[in-house]
Amino acid sequence: MSIILTSPLDMHLHLRDEEMLSTVAPLSAKSFSGAIIMPNLVPPISTKEALLSYKERILKACGKENFTPYMTLFFKPTYTKEFLESIKDDLVAIKLYPAGITTNSEGGLSGFDVEELRPTLTAMSELNIPLCIHGETNGFVMDREAEFVSIYEMLATNFPKLKIIMEHITTKESVEALDRFENLYATITLHHLLITLDDVAGGMLQPHLFCKPIAKRPEDREALRKVALEGNPKVMFGSDSAPHPQHAKESCGCAAGVFTAPIALQLLTELFVEHSTVEKLQAFVSDNARRIYNHIKVPTKRVTLEKEPFIVPTKYDNVVPIFATKTINYNIIKIEKIGDR
Amino acid sequence: MSIILTSPLDMHLHLRDEEMLSTVAPLSAKSFSGAIIMPNLVPPISTKEALLSYKERILKACGKENFTPYMTLFFKPTYTKEFLESIKDDLVAIKLYPAGITTNSEGGLSGFDVEELRPTLTAMSELNIPLCIHGETNGFVMDREAEFVSIYEMLATNFPKLKIIMEHITTKESVEALDRFENLYATITLHHLLITLDDVAGGMLQPHLFCKPIAKRPEDREALRKVALEGNPKVMFGSDSAPHPQHAKESCGCAAGVFTAPIALQLLTELFVEHSTVEKLQAFVSDNARRIYNHIKVPTKRVTLEKEPFIVPTKYDNVVPIFATKTINYNIIKIEKIGDR
What we know:
Oligomer: homodimer
Helix content of chain A: 25-40%
Shape of chain A: globular
Low-confidence stretches of chain A: none
Largest interface: A-B, 27 and 27 residues
Distance between the termini of chain A: 26 Å
């Protein structure tokens, strides 16, 4: 049986810059039609010039693939409506980081004062610019995301027309919040559908499975799987694929991030087939995102997968992917470009 | 102010063998009067010959320090009373590992059938040989110890005269069990008094803080601190100091174990002083153990510590200690041997 996915989208992707960008961008561009590109470079993307220049570097790195990088700004409460209007054609979303919560997030937000946020968030609502949030407090590592749910609720209540994307959710608490607010959506990564803290630290310590938010409990993974596998219209695939050079992962003080982009579609297919829900995969990897991000244009691509062993490479250049050397049961056997649809 | 500790004991110590033994044994022997030596070598210590030969190698590695290695066997349900009687003079305790639960525990117990265990545990009760247990199930990493409490209770109930030591406890559930059974005791490590999972995986991933059982939640650490700092008579210091070569810690698939032995007394003094309970430290690091293990002889040693900065070395040979390069506020300024007491 062939599984054909039309225009897969990765709604949360780190492409980095310079050498790393050259390594990883073509890998995503090959099998995805587009991706929401995270702005947490050093310094973060917060001006029109920086955004356009980064987009250009990405397109150059992708070569001839028909792949659209959906650009984001690093949220600042000082963005005015005029500024956002001036950049709107090139901007797909804005990403909010609490200060210091993950890689290169030092310049993030240090508090959630509704009145301080109101002008920018109101402008975003009016301009149909979604707000993507890394939702973690600075509390205990297993509680950070669940503690943040009250902030999601506060924002969803105060800005009912703002599309709020809870990025890379990892807990049942976040899943439950989806049902309570019409304007809350979520991305879910591949790795949080597959692993729990047991895989990271239950046997030997596995730095290549260490990420933020950290993988949680089995019951959290179940809650994530449920909404992903049923193709719940409020959740989208976002890999949060976050490459680091091998030495930064396999050392004292290992950086957070799991590199999954080049093997994500193969593993998602395997997971959905195993759960007899492969007919929902198209919604999870593309259709839901197109409906939620109703302002994006998506280049058409057709990706065909079949049951065929695929051995995950040891490395892509100097980046070790998730499940390196393991065998996945599904492989991409054909990728067709069909022009814009 | 000087803090004088008389005959400190480490009631849970890994000395390994060969080169590693030569590196780490002198470091414990210098400031401790004795230590319970874990038997999980490859193969594990399970015969009188192996035990005596290992004891000899340890004493040789310790040189002229007056330090007593309290030897243990790796628990097997096949040990007979005759065998235990024949080894009793050289045996201080027996250590039980569930199969596969930690480093070199593959030959451990794969089930807890009271009737299968009865002959050996009855003999141990009669011979006053304590049973030390690594109490974890093979469940989810954060739940393994709490899930094991019911097994502690089953054993404590069925063998009321057997001294059962819950080794390196890390949870409030284990602390609470201490009060329910007269014959349950516990060791607590230095690192579980100091860190939580946040320190291991809340920022960057810290392999040198990765151990089994894994550090738990803040409320668990509070429960451990309470009984340690009050000098609760049922708890003893056991470092579980577990050296691995640097390359085995800083790599993909990092081994479990924190190396603390040479800096444990300095850090314990700092902790107890900070909490204004330094007068309870003697009970925690020696007196409680002497009362619980009332069959051991303890060489007398007097260790004097003072408030003086001590920078933790980067390495001891090829072993990286906990908090390498950090400054501790207390230092050992004098160690006196006073002959047996």
